[in-house]
Amino acid sequence: MTSRRSDFLSLRNVARDFTRETRSYRAIDNLSLDVEEGEFVAIVGPSGCGKSTLLRILQGLIPPTSGEVFYKDRPQDGVNSDMAMVFQGFALLPWLSVRDNVALGLVARGRKPSEIDRTVSFYIDKVGLEGYEEAYPRELSGGMKQRVGLARALAIEPRILLMDEPFSNLDALTSVTLRDEVLMLWQDPEMPVRTIIMVTHIIEEAIQMADRVVVLSRRPTHVVREIAVDLPRPRSRKHPEFERLSDEIFSLIS
Amino acid sequence: MEGEPEPYTGISRIIGLLKILKEKGGASDLYQLGVDLHLELGEELQIVKAAESLGFVITPESDIALTPLGEEILEKDINGRKKLIRERLLTLPLFSRVFEWLEAEEEESLSMEPLKRKIGEAFPNEDVDTAFSMLVNWGRYAELFGYNAAREELYVDRGV
Ligand SMILES: Nc1ncnc2c1ncn2[C@@H]1O[C@H](COP(=O)(O)OP(=O)(O)OP(=O)(O)O)[C@@H](O)[C@H]1O
Ligand SMILES: [Mg+2]
User: Fold this and answer.
1) B150 and B83, same structural domain?
2) Which of A79, A179, B42, B156 has the highest CB neighbour count under 10 A?
3) Which neighbouring-strand residues pair with A198?
4) Among B50, B75, B100, which residue terminates a domain?
5) Are B100 and B65 in a shared domain?
């Protein structure tokens, strides 16, 4: 697995330790991963293995204990402003309207009000939230809440979208629809975001959506296998290759 | 899972159901579909009924099948789906009547309580609270109605 380092995004021999009650333990060990611009990469692994930690290292929210993160061929230092995150729990502010929740990232970046207005309207339209602008999170179904989370992340026009189990808090039918819509947005030429890195514990979801599935081991976690998914979209779970990939990943994780 | 069970079925769930049906070749046995989706019968029937009321499925005997309209909405993009739902809502007596009532008001809006009363009178077989939730939620999705929760007012969404 010592492939050429990607000049877009690359993790090299990353390790991350945490301390609990004065004892230090390793969550991630010797993890290397490359992502090319335009790819949809899914990361799957056993529960608690370090998937969320990996995303936080990628975004530069926490540093690796050792190893390096390269972005656009340079060592990454601090938070990467070309990335935005979609969270499992939506992370909406209950006292803000849909519109103001979507605007949050832009406000934090100190953009001009006129620009915020224009950009927020554009992404509200794109994710299908027109008509909900003045609603508050408590008035929304889970699916609509996650569309707000998505619009907020997209509104800062990141080059890379990170998603941490984005559909896990949704019922099965709603997640079917949202997966479909996220793929539509990813393939939409009007969307600046070309690269998606999604953590999921649902193997089927990974195969349905991604170009490549990265399988992580138990803690301390590292990459055990990378599996290219060459099936045309929309992908059917009934396809024999889909089933084969699903079995392969399942046997690696369990 | 997120939140309380809603008295109405969200549009995202309906589209999810259509997509699953499509994967199954466009039709299924109702019972088997519920088993595959891990849905209780009552919940399954609520979703199926909602999809049927919008014209996306038919349920002959104990089967369920996509209609051409059900196929059509799956082919559309995010906003195309909203537009089609809007057209479908206007074919429903509840939505078209409420739309007329709102249009007849000066501000094209009505407060929740008087509106519920009118619904109760015009549609004695509907559960008024469920009907109102549906008007707000499907109406918002379709950009047909807006709802201001602070003022408890439903209004015609003119997209401004
Ligand atoms: N801030 C922290 N301080 C101490 N330990 C942490 C911290 N963040 C994560 N850990 C530990 O690191 C390990 C990996 O956690 P992480 O949340 O990244 O896993 P995960 O794969 O995302 O889990 P899940 O499947 O539950 O989402 C866990 O043992 C967790 O307890
Ligand atoms: Mg996690």
Assistant:
1) yes
2) A179
3) A42, A163
4) B75
5) no
- Per the CB < 8 Å rule, is B13 touching A171? yes
Candidates A136, A144, A177; nearest CB to B149: A136
> Is B3 part of any domain?
no
- Nearest chain B residue (CA) to A132: B140
Q: End of a domain among B24, B53, B75?
A: B75
Cβ–Cβ of B13/A174 closer than 8 Å? yes
List, for residues A97-144, the tens digit of each pLDDT value. Answer: 999 999 999 999 999 999 999 999 999 999 999 999 999 999 999 999
Please check whether residues B63 and B105 belong to one and the same domain.
no
- Beta-ladder partners of B111: B153
Same domain, B105 and B139: yes
Distances in whole angstroms, Cα of residue B160 to Cα of each of A101, A115, A133, B156: 19, 18, 11, 11
Domain annotation covers residue B139: yes
Q: Does A241 touch chain B (CB under 8 A)?
A: no
In a domain, B5, yes or no: no
Nearest to A216 by CA among A36, A27, A71: A27
What's the pLDDT at A199? 98
B22 within a domain of the structure (yes/no) = yes
The residue whose C-alpha atom lies closest to atom 3 belonging to ligand 1 is A18
pLDDT band at B8 (very low <50, low <70, confident <90, very high): confident
- What is the domain range of residue B56? 11-75
Same domain, B82 and B70: no
CATH number of domain containing B35: 1.10.10.10
Of A178, A151, A183, residue with least CA distance to A166? A178
Nearest chain A residue to B80 by CA: give it. Answer: A128
The reply to whether residue B16 touches residue A177, judged by beta carbons under 8 angstroms, is yes
Low-confidence stretches of chain A (pLDDT beneath 50): 1
pLDDT confidence tier of residue B6, bands split at 50, 70 and 90? low
* Contact residues of ligand 1, CB 6 A cut-off: A 18, 20, 27, 45, 47-53, 201, 219
Can you name the residues that pair with A164 across neighbouring β-strands?
A199
Instruction: Using the atom order of ligand 1, give the atom closest to the CA of residue A48.
Output: 23
Contact A127/B at CB under 8 A: yes
Tell me, yes or no, whether B152 and B88 share the same domain.
Answer: yes
Instruction: Show the DSSP H helices in B24-142 as ranges.
Output: 30-36, 41-53, 68-75, 78-89, 93-104, 112-122, 128-141
Half-sphere exposure of B118 (CA within 13 A, CB side): 15
